[in-house]
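Re: the request from the purification team.
They wanted to know what the chain is likely to look like in 3D before they choose a buffer screen. I agreed to run a prediction and write the result into the notebook, where they can find it.
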Amino acid sequence: MSGESSRDQEFSEFVRARRSRLVGAAYLLCGDRYAAEDLVQTALTKLYAAWPRIHRQGAEDAYLRKILVRTSIDAGRRAWRRELTSDQLPDESVPGPDLDGRDELVRALAALGPRQRRIVVLRYWLDLSIDEVAADLRVSTGTVKSQSARALDNLRARLTASRTDALIQEQP
């Protein structure tokens, strides 16, 4: 088997094993199904370009996470991402990826600020250590700890308020 074919096969196997989890993480980072797919595609393209070096080092997952987070940050800074292209909603809504009925949690997560959302996704969705999150986001471990605590407090408050509102609406 030639070197190029082996590279493609190794990369394809790597992607197959991680793609759905990556799309889920990207969706939680940006809150939009199509933007999540674009984010993952961009990250995988960048990973493929660096594959021989990264694969040799055994750092594929860490490199891919960094690309995913940094590409998400870059996309959020672009002016066109903040523009509203229409004042009317489409006739049909397009659902995001199936997250096992966690719509309420996804809405609460989307209400967090970008930094807190990134930290929660990396720390609890991708199950990274505090040190790994700090390294990926280029912040101190203290920032990860404090932002995690604030984010979890915000999520608890939003989810509790949401459940309370639902109970009130059910009352006759």
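For the purification team: The longest helix spans residues 141-170.
Please add any questions underneath this entry.
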